């Protein structure tokens, strides 16, 4: 028979409300920062997604502690998850390089969504307008309205000619 502890339920609900309120305040703050400093909406959306993932992860951890999950059990689960994730990245190293390149492109690269770029290769040059920057790839739209996905690592490895819009 499952016995519910009213105090644990109260703590869980209070933790959930506090975390969601914190996320809401951060979202509003990011919106104000976007307006004040003129950041692109796409960058603010990505930062908001990262903040949401962190807040939801912390909710899970705190509620686990409230309901009596031992620290060693939680650490064992987290370390097992990270080990499996590490093996998956090692198995496909290019995924990790694309994620790293995506972070570099997002934080410190001269092109942004809406810019037109040309990826220069020996035999083939790809030209298109940047429609989306993702963790793994950039989506370009050509003059023929074709969508092309280019891995982020290619953007850092190849010469790029760009025109800011």
Roughly what is the average pLDDT, rounded to an integer? 82
The helix/strand order is: HHHHEEEEHE
Percent range of helical residues: 55-70%
Shape: elongated
What's the structural blueprint in terms of helices and strands?
Blueprint: H1 6-37, H2 41-66, H3 71-91, H4 93-108, E1 116-120, E2 125-133, E3 137-141, E4 147-151, H5 152-157, E5 160-163
Antiparallel strand pairs: 1-2, 1-5, 2-3, 3-4
Helix pairs in contact: 1-2, 3-4
Task: Please explain how this structure is put together.
The protein contains five helices and five strands. With 165 residues, the protein is α+β, with helices and mostly antiparallel strands. Strands 4-3-2-1-5 form a five-stranded antiparallel β-sheet. α1 runs antiparallel to α2 (41-66). The chain is elongated, with a radius of gyration of 21 Å.
Quick synopsis:
By secondary structure, this protein is an alpha+beta fold. The chain has helices spanning 6-37, 41-66, 71-91, 93-108, 152-157; strands at 116-120, 125-133, 137-141, 147-151, 160-163.
List its salient traits.
single chain; 165 residues; alpha+beta; 5-stranded antiparallel beta sheet; 5 helices
């Amino acid at each position: 028979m499952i016995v519910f502890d009213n105090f644990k339920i109260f703590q869980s609900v209070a933790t959930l409300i506090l975390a969601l309120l914190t996320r809401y305040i951060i979202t509003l703050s990011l919106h104000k920062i976007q307006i004040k400093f003129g950041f692109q909406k796409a960058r603010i959306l990505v930062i908001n997604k990262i903040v949401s993932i962190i807040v939801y992860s912390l909710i899970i951890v705190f509620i686990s502690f409230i309901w009596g999950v031992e620290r060693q059990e939680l650490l064992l689960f987290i370390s097992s998850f990270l080990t499996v994730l590490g093996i998956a990245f090692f198995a496909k190293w290019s995924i990790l390089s694309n994620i790293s390149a995506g972070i570099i492109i997002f934080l410190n690269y001269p092109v942004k969504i809406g810019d037109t770029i040309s990826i220069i290769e020996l035999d083939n040059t790809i030209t298109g307008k940047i429609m989306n920057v993702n963790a793994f790839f950039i989506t370009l739209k050509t003059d023929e309205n074709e969508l092309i996905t280019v891995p982020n690592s290619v953007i850092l490895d190849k010469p790029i000619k760009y025109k800011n819009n």
